[in-house]
Amino acid sequence: MARQWPLIAGLGALALIRPIMSMLGLSEQIGQPTASITATIIISLVWIAIVVVLRVKQPVVTLLLAGVAYGVFAIVLSAIASPILSGQLQGPLTNPFAIVSVLLTNAVWGFLAGITASVVMRVRQR
Questions:
Q1: Burial 93-125 (b: 16+ CB within 10 A, else e)
Q2: Taking a C-beta distance cutoff of 8 angstroms, is the pair 35, 66 a contact?
Q3: Mapped to the 3 state alphabet, what secondary structure does the chain carry?
Q4: Tens digits of per-residue pLDDT, 74-113?
């Protein structure tokens, strides 16, 4: 698993496209919730494709951890960007329950993507 940490961090960082789209106003221009849902689907498909193409041995664990990494990165991004954009700290760091919620939600997202990748890998082996 130690060799997977750069992959996990990279996949987590890739998902930062979602909050960056929101910060830049792109999500509002596209329209919510369409922008967020579409971005989530595309990120999930990219995560799954990368794990399948690289033949990752533990796709479920890898993508679950990528989801957690994304959650951590998003919390940090929010902590840095919100004071700059709004003048005050906003987001998960202002509420401990929100931190847990962000991490759990993204862990579930990664877990489901990992299950999907695992199924795709099994089908491809036949």
A1: eeeeeebeebbeebbebbbebbebbbeebeeee
A2: no
A3: CHHHHHHHHHHHHHCCHHHHHHHCCHHHHHCCCHHHHHHHHHHHHHHHHHHHHCCCCCHHHHHHHHHHHHHHHHHHHHHHHHHHHHCCCCCHHHCHHHHHHHHHHHHHHHHHHHHHHHHHHHHHHC
A4: 999 999 998 888 888 888 889 989 999 999 999 999 999 9
User: Amino acid letter at 50?
Assistant: I
Residues in CB range of 74: below 8 A, 6 or more apart: 15, 16, 18, 19, 92, 102, 106
113 vs 95: CA distance, rounded Å = 27
Question: What distance in Å separates the CA atoms of residue 11 and residue 66, rounded to the nearest whole number?
Answer: 6
